[in-house]
Design a protein that fits this description.
mainly alpha, 2 domains, four-stranded mixed sheet, about 5% strand, globular
Length: about 650
């Protein structure tokens, strides 16, 4: 018997639908259900529940009308690239009756990938939206709410224009229970949490009683001591403080770019905005943000050479085994825990119509290729998606670090000849990308159709042979900065020369970001795209190197003061953890949306600050729990620092 509340709701629906001509849509849906009752290709269980569903609609039972109401409809705005109507996910799953519960399925009205409804700007390349990573799901995506016993094949028979897959069907029975892997991960995290609590409590007790720890390892996991180190800003003659600002700003830039890219993976109702976005030169700030990664390559090469030469000055013996072990221990613990969470826990963090896209993009790759991620070789070993996708950079960085002794050892013996070799490698860092781009016919930007983007990524962007040029330029810079710091090279520049260098660096950097806009919009030309790929990143690396050189040499002025600010020192310390966390956080939000969203600069900017601050907060936890303790433990194990057992006197003089 229909309740008073149910009667009111259905009456409102009927009135509203009559006013908006949607009553016909509901009548058509009821007719579709009625016609399906005689379809022999639908399973018996589904037919039985469809009969109850049809009777519920005829009798105006609330649960049946909730199921009907949660259905998707042909979306308005298809001509401006709105290819989604997600219906109402929660309303569908909350449908309960004596015999039926709701099952939500997202289907696709399939069209050819190059189908163009009105004009060639529907998306870059004229493609309709694709559901997840599977090209077979290309078209307009509509939600259907059906009885839970109906399969995806049954749904395709009921709604014959749409194609359904179990991959995008959800009901309360399919909600995941914790697997043994998830339980094991929770146990591992709980163990580290226990270490943190015990270590921090012990450290606080010692601190307020003026004692030193009996063993430093006993406070290795202490948030109290590690937190103070994290917040502490230091300053010494050997430090290159301007690097902190460059790292922090570059990381924020990368997060902003991923905000646009990952934010557009959801059910976007104005996807044509992407085409409009690319038409504006000012937006090359986002499209050209990939050079921010080259800033990290430059800094990586610089720090590798600079720290090595400082160690040589102190007569520290170069132990290549410890050199590699230190690097692996420095990067891997935080990386390993992120990979573990991806593979076992991440898919429990949300739900929604597009949630299985999230599973495909972040969870399954780590279950398949976790070992490649932890060996830093997944830029060569992965399928369409990599485990923790953004860590392709770490693979390249680690590989270049492993190869760096080929440069470092000769640099100690024959520095001038080594410099000549580095200049030759810089030239190779231009020629190799050129020939790869030329013969593979690569487009120079990530704004392209899926096939061209993948070819660009796999043939050049994620490959060590395509990205080593910036690292080599950084190594050259590291050599000269070391000489400047030792005062073996005197830098005396007139103000006009300083001004000229600053103009060249800043103008060069801006040109690297914005000058490719015309190339991107014009018809593909093999020569122009290949030359852009060959010269753009080395030119950016030179511009960044010039800024670092001027700041270190005492000609940085207010720029150096800004880049050396204490806040950037803090952000620099957690930048690695932010890098590991932010990507999945943005994608998690995008794939959890249960309604269509719009892309607008204001919304993206608003989301950026929320995601960045949240990423930074989680990064602090990741850093204090896994990065800082492992650094302390490594110092104890590899450097054999003396164990302090003497108590401080409670009676201070």
């Amino acid at each position: 018997m229909l309740s008073f509340k149910g009667s009111i709701i259905i009456t409102v629906l009927l009135v509203v639908n009559a006013e908006t001509d949607l009553l016909q849509v509901h009548e058509n849906h009821i007719s579709t259900i009625k016609n399906s009752l005689t379809n022999s290709r639908i399973s018996a269980e589904c037919l039985q529940q469809l009969k109850f569903y049809f009777e519920g609609l005829v009798n105006k039972e609330l649960w049946a009308w909730q199921m009907l109401d949660s259905h998707g409809r042909i979306p308005s705005g298809i001509l401006v690239d709105n290819f989604y109507d997600l219906g109402n996910y929660d309303e569908c799953l909350n449908v309960k009756s004596k015999n039926i519960s709701g099952k939500y399925c997202l289907g696709t009205i399939s069209m050819p990938p190059d189908y163009n409804i009105a004009q060639p700007r529907l998306t870059k390349g004229g493609q309709l939206r694709m559901l997840g990573n599977d090209p077979q799901f290309t078209g307009v995506h509509l939600a259907a709410c059906l009885p839970s016993k109906c399969t995806a094949d049954d749904a395709s028979e009921i709604h014959m224009l749409s194609k359904f897959s179990e991959k995008y069907c959800y009901d309360t029975d399919t909600q995941q229970q914790l697997t043994s892997g998830a339980i094991a991960t929770i146990a591992v995290l709980s163990f580290f949490l226990l270490l943190v609590v015990l270590s921090t409590s012990y450290d606080v007790y010692l601190y307020y009683n003026n004692y030193k720890p009996g063993r430093d390892i006993s406070v290795a996991f202490s948030y109290f001591i590690n937190g103070r180190k994290l917040l502490q800003s230091s300053k010494s003659a050997d430090q290159l403080l301007c690097l902190n600002g460059l790292k922090a700003i570059s990381m924020m830039w990368i997060v902003m770019a991923h905000e646009y890219v990952n934010g557009s993976t959801g059910a976007v109702a104005n996807y044509s905005k992407i085409s409009e976005f690319t038409q504006q030169t000012a937006n090359m700030f986002v499209i050209g943000a990939t050079v921010a990664v080259d800033t990290f390559f430059v800094i990586g090469g610089l720090v590798t050479v600079y720290t090595f030469l400082k160690a040589v000055d102190k007569n520290v013996k170069f132990n290549i085994i410890l050199y590699y072990i230190h690097r692996y221990i420095r990067l891997t613990p935080a990386m390993a825990i992120v990979v573990l969470i991806h593979a076992t826990l991440l898919n429990y963090f949300g739900n929604g119509p597009l949630w299985n896209t999230f599973d495909d993009h972040l969870v399954q790759p780590c279950r398949k290729h976790f070992w490649a991620a932890l060996l830093y070789i997944q830029n060569y070993v992965h399928d369409e998606q990599a485990c923790v996708p953004q860590t392709w950079y770490l693979s390249i960085d680690m590989q270049l670090f492993i190869l760096s002794p080929i440069i470092l050892i000769p640099m100690k013996i024959k520095p001038k000849l080594t410099l000549i070799g580095l200049f030759i490698l810089t030239l190779a860092g231009i020629l190799v990308p050129f020939f790869v781009a030329f013969f593979e016919e690569l487009q120079a930007f990530l704004i392209a159709d899926k096939d061209n983007v993948q070819k660009y990524m796999f043939s050049y962007y994620e490959q060590t042979y395509g990205r080593f040029g910036a690292y080599v330029i950084g190594m050259i810079l590291g050599y000269f900065i070391h000489k400047i710091k030792k005062e073996k090279i005197k830098i005396n520049l007139k103000p006009i020369m300083v001004l000229t260098l600053w103009i060249m660096c800043l103008a060069g950097g801006l040109a690297c970001i914005y000058a490719g806009h015309g190339t991107m919009l014009s018809a593909y030309n093999k020569w122009s795209h290949s030359l852009y790929i060959a010269f753009n990143r080395p030119a950016w690396s030179l511009a960044i190197s010039g800024i670092i050189f001027l700041c270190v040499s005492g000609f940085g002025g207010p720029v150096n003061v800004f880049l050396s600010a204490p806040i950037f020192q803090f952000l620099s310390k957690i930048s690695y953890s932010i890098y590991l966390i932010h990507y999945e956080l943005i994608l998690l939000r995008a794939c959890s949306y249960k309604t269509e969203i719009v892309i607008e600069d204001f919304y993206v900017f608003f989301n950026f600050w929320g995601d960045f601050i949240f990423s930074a907060a989680l990064a602090v936890v990741l850093c204090l729990t896994f990065e800082s303790p492992m650094i302390a433990i490594e110092k104890l194990l590899l450097h054999k620092e003396p164990i302090q057992t003497k108590l401080k006197s409670n009676m201070s003089a």
